[in-house]
Every structure is written in structure tokens, then in C-alpha cells.
Amino acid sequence: MVFNFRVFKKQAPNGKITIYLGKRDFVDHISGIEPIEGVFLVDNEYKDRKIFGQIVCSFRYGREEDEVMGLNFQKDLFLDSRQLYPPPEKQETSKLQERLIRKLGSEAYPFTFTIPPSAPASITLQPGPEDEGQPCGVHYYIKIFVGENETDRPHKRSTVSMGIRKIQYAPSKQGRQPCTVVRKDFMLSPGELELEVTLDKQLYHHGEQIAVNICIRNNSNKVVKKMKTMVQQGVDVVLFQNGQYRTTVAFAETQEGCPIQPGSSLQKIIYLTPTLTSNKGRRGIALDGHLKHQETNLASTTLLASPDARDAFGIIVSYAVKVKLYLGALGGELVAELPFVLMHPKPTVKGKMLHADSQADVEDFRQDTVDNEAAD
């Protein structure tokens, strides 16, 4: 029976240590995070040395080019750290690790790391066109190195680092349909202006069109001159007290059906699609953490087990639809807002088995060599 599986491979500069991972995306299920399971290969020359492994969460909250006079705008959090070689006497292994060890030989050893449930999601803040260096955001990588202890400063030639991501997928069930009604009355004027906004659903996948149903009832003596509908991305950099800001990632402004005179009404559906394509180069837009040579997209909504479960070094992302009616200089504005969830759907799992062989069990794997990354 032949099994086919894909692995990611990275080697230390001196070629003495090689790391193999079955995947680089690890899913946060709110209740827990998938373990990081892999195998590392040790050269015979290092049989008498100690080898350590770490999971590092790197939080950059300032530009590299601004790091002058000893300033440093990056914090590295060691989420898991342990000695990997000499290996412990007993260690549980997954099927992937067992297959890799059989394929690579007796010099291969398994490792398993865990990420705390409260750890922040992988998010990158898009740099501007003229920005240089590593972008701001939360990045993860696994590091295996030779040293005397876990806190030893390793040599680059005997260290291998591979970037990974902590991600979330959309829930399997839709929530309640978002709907809101706002009203505005006017001093010395009878009646009120009513704005009702409804979305067709609460949960959207990246690339999906958002249908915004707008119903305006003008029972006042004011005139609605135009309307603007926006999708806004909210970013909360938890480390800073004033680290919250919003950016419009899609909008539509129209005067169709306007002016809306006193005593009349209007019902309209506006379609918006928030994408990274229309926001390229805009500094501060939150993106899903991406690995080298991979395309990314707007950051997914951050799901939390509770509002208090916010890591101090995390970035919280949210989305909302905002509808604004313009009534002129004297009338002011009427605004309605509806939050929604924007995420990737959970991918379907395809079967690994290719075909049967009556003589023996054979295993094959495709190696994707990982280039040097910012984490190195």
C-alpha cells in the first residue's frame, strides 16, 4: 500500500541539522490548538552535543528603520522550550512522525510542541510602499539549535528556524442575522428619520459578496441627499491603550434614489466585496500572517473564547458594515453599524491513500524545501 504525504524541510547553514514538518498552519479551535509535530535529522558529528527546540512568537510593534539609539520595537516570547537531544527514553509519536523516522533512518528524532490557547493569531500589518524591513505584526517560528542549555545564545551556522502560522477557521454554523434600526429626531421639527440595515447573514468567507439591505423611512421634514455604505476593518493592538483604529476596506457612495423627500421612503441593496486587491499598499491594513512565497488576504476576524482572553502582545481584528446618510449642513448625519465575521472556511480533507501493493507497504513523501525567512 502506497501512502503519499507532503513535508516541509529546512536545513541549518552547516547542514548538520535538518527539520521536517508535515504542515506549517496550525489551527486554533478556541478550546485548544493543534500540536506542532515534526522530526529533526542530526548529523553523526553532533551525536555528543545537546540540541534544544523552541516555539517563538515574535511581536513587532514598530518599524525596523526607526530602531535608533538602542531602541527595539520587537518582543520575542518563548511559548515552549525543551531539550530534544539526547532524546527522552519514552516519547509518543504520531503516524506522520513514525513514517518520517522509517524513511529518514535512525538519525531522525521526533519532537512535539504545544502553543498556549491564549496565544495571539498570526497577523501582519501591511507596510507602506516605502517601508523597509520586517513588517509589524505577530509571527511564529520554530527554532532548533545546538547549545549547552535552553538560554544559550546559539550560533547561526548550527541553528535552523522555520516560520509557521497560528490560524482560525470559520465556525460551521451561522449566527443570528444582523439587523439594526436607528432613528433621529430634530429640534423644533416634527417626526423622525428612520434607517434600517440588514445583512443577509452573519458569517462571510473571504471573497464573498456582502449584501447590505437598506430601508429608509423619512417621516421628518429633512431631505436625505446621499448615502454611503462601507466595510470597515477594526484593529486593536492590545499592547497600547490607544492602539485601536479603523480602516475602510470597501465602500460605495451613491445618490441613486436621492434626494429622499419628507414623507417618502427608499429600499435598496448595496453589494460590497472587501478584498486585499483593492487595498494594496495601504499602510496599517491587517492581513493574515503569511509565509514566504505565499499569497495572503485581509486578516480574518479574531475569535476569542471570552472578551478577557486577550493576549497583551496580540492584535484583535474585527469587521463591521457602516451606513451613513447625509442630510446637509444643518441636518447632520445618521449612522448605522452592523458587525459581521469574515473568515476562511475549514478546508476539506482529501484521502491520502493512492493505491494498494500486495507485496509490501511503501511510503513516499514530497519535500518542499523552505527558503531563508525573516525569522532566521
How would you spell out the order of helices and strands? EEEEEEHEEEEEEEEEEEEEHEEE
What is the distance, rounded to the nearest whole angstrom, between the alpha carbons of the first and last residues? 38 Å
Q: Which stretches are low in confidence, meaning pLDDT under 50 for 5 or more residues running?
A: 351-363
Largest sheet data? 7 strands, mixed
Total number of beta strands: 22
Helix content: under 10%
> How many distinct helices?
2
SS-derived structural category: mainly beta
Shape: elongated
Q: Overall mean pLDDT score?
A: 87
Beta-strand percent range: over 45%
**Spatial extent as radius of gyration:** 26 Å
Please characterize this protein's 3D structure:
This protein has 376 residues and is mainly β. Helices cover 4% and strands 46% of the residues. It has helices at residues 95-104, 328-331, and strands at 2-11, 17-21, 25-27, 36-42, 51-60, 74-85, 108-113, 123-125, 137-146, 159-167, 179-186, 189-199, 203-205, 210-218, 226-237, 244-254, 265-272, 286-288, 315-326, 333-343, 353-355, 362-369. The strands form four sheets. Strands 3, 5, 6, 8, 9, 10 and 18 form a seven-stranded mixed β-sheet that branches. Strands 1, 2, 4, 7, 21 and 22 form a six-stranded mixed β-sheet that branches. The chain has a five-stranded mixed β-sheet with strand order 13-20-19-15-16, with no helix packed on it. The protein contains two helices and 22 strands. The two termini are 38 Å apart. Residues 351-363 have low confidence and may be disordered. The longest helix has 10 residues, at 95-104.
